UniProtKB/TrEMBL annotation:
GO terms for molecular function: 3'-5' exonuclease activity; endonuclease activity. Heterodimer of SbcC and SbcD. The keyword Electron transport does not apply. This is Nuclease SbcCD subunit D. PANTHER family: COMPONENT OF ATP-DEPENDENT DSDNA EXONUCLEASE, NUCLEASE SBCCD SUBUNIT D.
Length: 386
């Protein structure tokens, strides 16, 4: 059986205020063409269909058109909600849409009820695990702790229990939206830290044949049976070197996995340029970036006059400008943003406590700070879920 594994469409998202709707439409055209050309048995969309809980109308229309086109092909499509989606909104009408072969899996309570497909070798059970916000689903799963490992582990226990009750030889696929240990993150993914930990071990998925992951935007292999498709488009300059693609996965009679990458259309390459403005404007080696979306970081000791206009004369698609003046290591005027770069919210709060009273928080106080940040995150998740 063959699947096309994709995720993280983020319909409605822009790139530094540049609309990506046309690029997203081109990707969906490519997706439909690939489904038709490869004769896959199912399409798997592992979450973050939309970029936000209440997407713009144009994104909803694009999604609606994609659903109709996939349904017209007669190829089953299984989708889960991600941390950017509103599970309730995405799941509206799921029962009716199910009849058209579009299977929306957004309810954590039903994650152990698979979509079952069959081929000449028997059944394949496709389990869709929507994004599980620990604080919101802990009670549903009876998890000991409100963290990702506990709730996802409990969900997988339900999956394995259902699979064990099925005929011997039933192959299995799990779709999940999570940060699995071993995956490489980038700047465009929303932080899902809970309980101080964002990542879950790949061993949580033991016992299934293939795991189709979403959330991380780089296409990558955690191991042969656990893979991220990545986002079909770049959503931050940190993805400059990503090769955007989908996985074409073949599951043989014994559940062994073969996977090949199917590249997705690139609307415009990305370039991160750094240096003094005079050098960026004069360097002939940078000519290849005239058609790229450009992020320029200027290192001039003094801020140049109207730098964006000067850069745009050579790089018409420059859309991001930053300043990092050249300084010595001893320079105490380094920016606040530079001092905070790479630090978590809790670390910043602990630094503040140490600054105010002369010593950092003890273990109990650190735990209290983490509980506060988790509560804020859970409150935001509840508001998005409404």
């Amino acid at each position: 059986m063959r699947f096309l594994h994709t995720s993280d469409w983020h319909l409605g998202r822009s790139f530094h205020r540049v609309s990506l709707l046309d690029a997203q439409r081109a990707f969906l055209d490519h997706l439909v063409a690939t489904v038709r050309a490869t004769a896959v048995d199912a399409v798997l969309v592992a979450g973050d269909v939309y970029d936000r809980a209440v997407p713009p109308l144009a994104a909803v229309e694009l999604f609606d058109d994609a659903l109709h086109r996939l349904a017209d092909l007669g190829v089953p499509t299984v989708m889960i909600s991600g941390n950017h989606d509103s599970a309730r909104r995405l799941g509206v009408g799921a029962g009716l849409i199910d009849r058209a072969g579009i299977h929306l899996r957004t309810d954590p309570a039903t994650c152990h009820r698979p979509v079952v497909l069959s081929d000449a070798h028997g059944d394949v059970a496709l389990y869709g695990l929507p994004y599980l916000e620990p604080v919101l689903v802990r009670e549903e799963f009876g998890a000991e702790r409100a963290d990702h490992t506990a709730v996802l582990g409990a969900a997988m226990d339900r999956v394995r229990a259902d699979l064990a009750a099925r005929p011997p030889g039933t192959r299995s696929v799990v779709m999940a939206h999570a940060f699995v240990t071993g995956g490489a993150a980038c700047d465009s993914e929303r932080d899902i830290t809970a309980g101080g930990v964002a990542a879950v071990p790949a061993e949580l998925f033991d016992g299934v044949d293939y795991v189709a992951l979403g959330h991380l935007h780089g296409c990558q292999t955690v191991d042969d049976r656990v893979r991220y498709s990545g986002s079909p488009l770049a959503y931050s300059f940190s993805e400059e070197h990503h090769r955007k693609s989908m996985w074409l996965v073949t599951l043989d009679a014994d559940g062994a996995v073969e996977a090949e990458r199917v590249d997705t259309p690139v609307p415009r390459p990305l370039a991160r340029l750094r240096g003094r403005i005079a050098d960026l404007l004069a360097d002939p080696a940078l000519e290849r970036h005239t058609d790229s979306w450009v992020e320029a970081t200027l290192t001039d000791p003094a801020r140049p006059h109207e730098p964006m206009a000067a850069l745009a004369a050579r790089f018409p698609h420059v859309i991001s400008l930053a300043f990092e003046p050249e300084r010595t290591d001893e320079d105490r005027l380094a920016s606040y943003a530079e001092r905070l770069r790479g630090r978590t919210d809790r670390q910043i709060a602990e630094d503040f406590v140490a600054h105010v009273r002369g010593e950092g928080p003890d273990a109990d106080e650190s735990a209290l700070l983490q509980d506060a940040f988790d509560a804020v995150g859970a409150d935001a998740a509840r508001k998005e879920a409404r």
